[in-house]
Amino acid sequence: MAKFIEGLYYSVSHEYVRVEGEFAYIGITDYAQNALGNVVYVDLPEVDDEIEAGEDFGAVESVKAASDLTSPVSGVVVETNEALEDEPELINKDAFANWIMKVKLADTTELDNLMDAKAYEAFCNK
After folding, report:
1. Mean pLDDT, residues 39-63 taken together
2. Confidence bin at 1 (pLDDT 50/70/90)
3. Is pLDDT above 90 for 114?
4. Three-state SS for 11?
């Protein structure tokens, strides 16, 4: 059973956003990691990359499939989770604790286009 955490924002492409001040931590949801299976590789963006909401910023590969990562928000990458380079399986252990990138938000109104936990859970269960 997938986990859905209140207070996060969720995209239709199964990324989550955790906002802390002017920054957003972005990763894939528990539902997504469950669907992918054992994660074997994470293609991380570069620090200082400018990303736009709706654009791909990397990929996650599992033994079953590869999936592009689509940014739910716009901004500048200020940090990546480098632990995932050596241990991509951390996403399977806890997708919400193992974010992929930290972004300085360009436009917080973009968060209004995302789902809350209840809406995302309903989206996943339809």
Report:
1. 97
2. confident
3. yes
4. coil
Give CA separation, 99 vs 2, 18, 62, 96, 122, in Å: 17, 9, 17, 6, 23
- The backbone region for 7, taken as left when phi is positive above 0, alpha when psi lies in -120 to 50, beta otherwise, is left
Residue with tokens 């590869």, as numbered in its chain: 66
At 9, list the tokens: 């924002």
Sign of CA dihedral 7, 55, 51, 61: positive
**Residues constituting the chain:** 126
Written as six digits, the tokens of 115 are 């789902």
3-class secondary structure, 76: strand
Cβ atoms of residues 48 and 38 within 8 Å: no
- Dihedral of CA 59/91/34/54: which sign? negative
Alpha helices, H only, 2-126 = 30-36, 83-86, 90-93, 117-124
